[in-house]
């Protein structure tokens, strides 16, 4: 079994991390790059490396050192809109560690990378001392996303169950002590 290196991203990792993220939003989400939603992908240094309470992790291929997976955390809670008001109120900015960009290249999936990235991000959030909750949302249309996140956290709102269906997003709280 390959032993991937997972570490905090540095400046030399940003092009590889950005490529993993952009490939994912085009291939898996089908949205492509949307500036309002994906500004952190274009400038991950400003989004994750500069702020003290934020981080970007990368997983490196043991054979060639290429970035094959990403995971990020920031202190911005979900905004309303586009997220439901009840979710934004439950997870306020500054008190909420939001997991973002947990992306793994298809040929490296099913090897535990996402789970390892999440464990490292939860440890980062716990060490910060200022976060009271860990939040994330996922698109259940992405293959494997919903069962993966259900295995790690608790659904706080499944928009598919709302009268109008919302955006079809599932919102989760992940226990920090996991």
TrEMBL record:
A family per Pfam: Acetyltransf_1
Signal sequence extent: none
Residues in coiled coil: none
SUPFAM superfamilies, A to Z: Acyl-CoA N-acyltransferases (Nat)
KW Transferase (keyword) present: yes
Keywords: Transferase
Keyword match Hydrolase: no
PROSITE patterns per the UniProt record, alphabetical: GNAT
Top-level division of the source organism's lineage: Bacteria
Residues in N-acetyltransferase domain copies: 4-178
Stored CDD domains: NAT_SF
Protein's name according to its UniProt entry: GNAT family N-acetyltransferase
Annotated source species: Streptomyces cylindrosporus
